[in-house]
Amino acid sequence: MNELCPRFEKAMQLFSKRWVGLILFELLDGSKRFSEMEAELPISGRLLSDRLKLLEQEEIVKRHIYSEFPVRIEYQLTDKGRALEPVIKAIQDWSHDWVTENEIEIET
Fold this sequence. Notes:
- This protein is α+β, with helices and mostly antiparallel strands.
- The protein is built from six helices and three strands.
- It has a three-stranded antiparallel β-sheet.
């Protein structure tokens, strides 16, 4: 159990960072450009960039740079990130069953 607790705590710290869950949820559909995610999420570009860098460092998200003009950059989940799909889907199911409309408050 001692070995599990620090790992669990690390995972909870990562996933409890604001917007990480929604970014991962967005990327479950496949690779997306930064501008697409920025348009879909109620988050500033700076914070989105910070969170994507964090997820890259954790090897959950991979950035692809295409040498086109203008340069195209897309983000997608790695195998490590894709392994979170059942967890994210379970949270989605739980939220539909247990989170009421009165409890929803989106802040930017």
